[in-house]
Design goal:
Blueprint (H helix, E strand, L loop, with lengths): L2 H14 L1 H39 L4 E5 L12 H8 L4 E10 L4 E5 L2 E3 L3 E4 L11 E4 L11 E6 L7 E2 L30 E5 L12 E10 L13 E4 H14 L15 E6 L5 H10 L3 E3 L2 H43 L1 H9 L4 H39 L23 H27 L3 H6 L2
Parallel strand pairs: 5-11, 7-10
Antiparallel strand pairs: 1-12, 1-13, 2-5, 2-12, 3-4, 3-9, 4-8, 6-10, 7-11, 9-10
Helix pairs in contact: 1-8, 2-6, 2-8, 2-9, 6-9, 8-9
Length: 450
């Protein structure tokens, strides 16, 4: 028997008893819907949780803190930073060199800024998710005699009038029309310089000053550490140079016998959040303390995975019931078609062809039920997301896993293929016993069957 003939016979037998086939398919539809919707809800909860965590901080960034001065712990210096960067999963590393409060003053005429100043790798700021609202990130190719700095979005409002003791700042309070007042200094256009401060007012040495130029304004982001909001970022080597000038001006002696523990803080960017735990363990092995969103994400992810298994299991029970329905339908079909089976055997039809026909019928029921079930699942998912969003809903929130923040149901493409394949496989498994039973029927007994 040709494959084409078997397909025609399979479809003919299914549509011969439309009501019974329809009821059996509906069982598979319900089971498939239950599995897809339940798993999509679990995926939606997981994605929403991850997006909420991402708003708290980058899931792929590890903060290294060097608080221990034990001689057994290696210095967190440039060599160690480079060693960490050589890890195959590490995309970028950025030490944070903090200028001590009051050592430097950024001036523009009579206006002065004495906020936090951080030395970082300017080339890697973008890799760590820092963004600009104006200007460009300075790079090592920028060059020029002037040193480039980045101001936080609110740092320009920290400039104060040195000629006044009261009302000497511009408050960040919008006017009646919602417009923010301009700060004293336009850091992108006005001339700026960093002046080294004196510890002792009676120090007769001239305080050196260095010209600087603003490369850009950083967007506010409190999830970053250090946060750019009220801060100024400089090139790390340039800030070290300023620190040396401060020590010379104020006769600060550096104890060469004291162990140099290196940087107090280093940021590490990992290529994927699934590698964060592994990289973090390696760093802890050196003796440093670390912090990342992994400590929060991992237990939440495990909880979400458990929820998905429970929800998927509940859906699988529905599909198991549908499998019993397929088995029952196929057994009833065998009783009704006993004479037909006998004729097929007498005419010389091969045993495997008879088995294939029955397996095709069972698999087709599973396939049709799976396809319809997935289609209805998309509709249910759309309704769930519309209700979750409060109004309207957007189909882009469920198509191929492109769920938005706040969406409660996500149906990725792999779930669609998996659900259809699983439903088809359930149909084939359910039809295996009836198919074997059909081929064991005696041809002579079957022909005599009324």
């Amino acid at each position: 028997m040709k494959l084409k003939d078997m397909i025609v016979m399979c479809l003919s037998n299914l549509f011969k008893r439309k009501v019974r086939t329809l009821l059996t398919v509906m069982g598979v539809v319900i089971g498939t819907c239950a599995i897809v919707v339940m798993i999509s809800l679990g995926l939606g909860m997981q994605k929403t949780t991850e997006e909420a965590l991402a708003q708290m901080g980058d899931l792929t960034v590890i903060q290294i803190y060097n608080w221990n001065s034990s001689p057994d712990i290696p210095a967190l210096d440039d060599a160690m930073v480079q060693t960490i960067k050589e890890n195959q999963y590490v995309e970028a590393t950025m030490p944070v060199y903090e200028g001590e409060w009051g050592q430097f003053t950024i001036k523009s005429g009579k206006y002065a800024y004495e906020g936090m100043v951080y030395g970082v790798y300017m080339d890697d700021l973008e890799a760590f998710g820092y963004q600009l609202t104006e200007g460009n990130f300075p790079t090592s190719e920028t060059g020029g005699e002037e040193s480039y700095v980045l101001f936080g979005s609110q740092a320009p409002y920290e400039f104060y009038n040195t000629k006044k003791t009261m009302n000497n700042r511009v408050n960040m309070i919008p006017d009646a029309e919602g417009n923010m007042p301009d700060p004293f200094v336009d850091v992108m256009k006005d001339k700026l310089e960093i002046e080294i401060n004196k510890q002792d007012p009676e120090n007769n040495k001239k305080a050196p000053a260095f010209k600087i130029k603003t490369a850009g304004i950083m967007a506010e982001d409190w999830s970053k550490n250090p946060s750019p909001s009220y801060s100024v970022f400089l090139d790390i080597d340039y800030l070290k140079k300023l620190q040396t000038e401060y020590n010379k001006l104020n006769n600060v002696k550096v104890d060469k016998n004291k162990k140099d523990t290196g940087y107090q803080q280093v940021m590490v960017k990992v290529d994927d959040m699934k590698h964060v735990a592994e990289v973090e363990e390696i760093i802890k092995g050196y003796g440093y303390e670390t912090n990342s969103m992994e400590s929060i994400r991992k237990p939440i992810e495990e909880q979400a995975r458990s929820q998905q298994m429970i929800l998927g299991g509940l859906g699988a029970i529905s599909l198991l019931v549908a499998a019993l329905g397929i088995t029952n339908t196929m057994i009833m079909s065998i009783y009704e078609r006993t004479r037909e089976i006998g004729v097929m055997k007498v005419l010389g039809c091969m045993i495997k062809n008879i088995r294939t026909v029955f397996l095709m019928e069972a698999g087709t029921i599973g396939l049709i039920g799976g396809v319809i079930g997935v289609g209805i699942s998309y509709l249910i998912s759309f309704i769930i997301n519309s209700i979750s969003a409060g109004a309207g809903g957007d189909m882009s929130g469920i198509v191929m896993g492109n769920g938005g923040l706040g969406g409660s149901s996500i149906i990725p493409f792999w779930l669609v293929l998996g659900a259809i394949a699983f439903a088809t496989m359930i149909g084939l498994i359910s039809g295996f016993y009836p198919a074997n039973r059909a081929v064991k029927i005696s041809a002579l007994t079957a022909i005599k069957q009324e």
